[in-house]
């Protein structure tokens, strides 16, 4: 990959129907990314995402991948790497969950934790090993600003992202000096087609803004990227708010 421009020639997206992942892939394909793998559950949405990226002139292939099927991860991911070196892996899968429902029905809570943390740990370790073997490349992990301090309203999601965030930072340390770059991306609330109510909310970002920040982070070889950048200071302050006060905040 040409670090000067921050645009990989080849890309593997884990979570190929994610709006953030697709916005990032589109931005990179518009630059110089010519080979893209979209990994996700087979669906019309995955195929539509592939067609959108082909419009940029990229060769796009889809591969069946399920975060919860960790037993199949190694075979699936090693097969992709065997097709040729990858400059970048974007780990973008995850679920928000429904906090009230998930608190009542622990099956949903466990599924959220397994998707956001266990599945991500499995996939990231395998990709990290493959990138180390090829002696280079970037692993970009989509975390969340919620990883800094879980709120009452979404502590199941926030705790799963906190675990993922800590893991990804540790993986970055483990791979330091190998030529592999690990970057953790912490967006705030992201306005998507499914969340139009966030239009006027403060510090809300968009998939396109996250994509721009990812590209800039690649160029700088950043280890942690906040989107928007000022969120770093907001969360630093919230992290030190006394717990009794934090409980009363309308967050």
Briefly summarize what is shown.
The chain has 251 residues and is of the alpha/beta class. It is 46% helix and 16% strand.
Question: Can you put this structure into words, describing what you see?
Answer:
The chain has nine helices and seven strands. It is of the alpha/beta class. Helix 1 (19-29) links the parallel strand 1 and strand 2. Helix 5 (106-133) packs parallel to helix 6 (155-175). The protein starts with 9 loop residues before the first strand and ends with a helix.
Throw out a few tags for this protein.
oxidoreductase, 251 residues, oxidoreductase activity, alpha/beta, Sc_DH/Rdtase_CS, NAD(P)-bd_dom_sf, SDR_fam, seven-stranded parallel sheet, 7 strands, single chain
> What's the alpha carbon Rg, rounded to whole Å?
18 Å
Strand content: 15-25%
Largest sheet: 7 strands, parallel
Question: What would the average pLDDT be, to the nearest integer?
Answer: 92
In the sheet with the most strands, the strands line up as 3-2-1-4-5-6-7
Q: Got a strand count?
A: 7
What structural class is derived from the secondary structure elements?
A: alpha/beta
The proportion of residues forming helix, as a percent range, comes to: 40-55%
Low-confidence stretches: none
Total of DSSP H or I helical runs spanning 4+ residues: 9
Element string (H = helix, E = strand): EHEHEHEHHEHEHEHH
Terminal CA distance: 40 Å
């Amino acid at each position: 990959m040409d670090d000067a421009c921050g645009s990989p020639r080849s890309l593997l997206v884990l979570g190929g129907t994610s709006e953030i992942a697709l916005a990032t892939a589109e931005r990179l394909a518009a630059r110089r990314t010519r080979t893209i793998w979209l990994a996700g559950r087979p669906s019309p949405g995955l195929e539509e995402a592939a067609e959108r990226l082909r419009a940029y002139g990229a060769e796009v292939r889809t591969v069946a991948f399920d975060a919860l099927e960790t037993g199949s991860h190694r075979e699936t991911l090693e097969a992709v790497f065997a097709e040729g070196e990858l400059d970048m892996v974007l780990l973008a899968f995850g679920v928000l969950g429904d906090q009230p429902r998930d608190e009542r029905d622990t099956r949903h809570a466990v599924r959220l934790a397994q998707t956001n943390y266990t599945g991500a740990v499995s996939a990231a370790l395998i990709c990290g090993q493959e990138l180390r073997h090829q002696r280079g490349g970037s692993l970009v992990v989509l975390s969340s600003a919620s990883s800094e301090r879980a709120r009452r309203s979404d502590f199941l999601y926030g705790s799963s992202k906190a675990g993922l965030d800590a893991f990804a930072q540790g993986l970055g340390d483990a791979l330091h000096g190998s030529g592999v770059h690990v970057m953790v991306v912490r967006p705030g609330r992201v306005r998507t087609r499914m969340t139009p109510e966030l239009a006027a909310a403060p510090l809300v970002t968009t998939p396109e803004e996250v994509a721009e920040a990812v590209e800039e982070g690649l160029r700088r070889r950043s280890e942690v990227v906040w989107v928007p950048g000022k969120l770093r200071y907001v969360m630093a302050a919230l992290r030190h708010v006394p717990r009794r006060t934090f409980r009363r905040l309308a967050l």
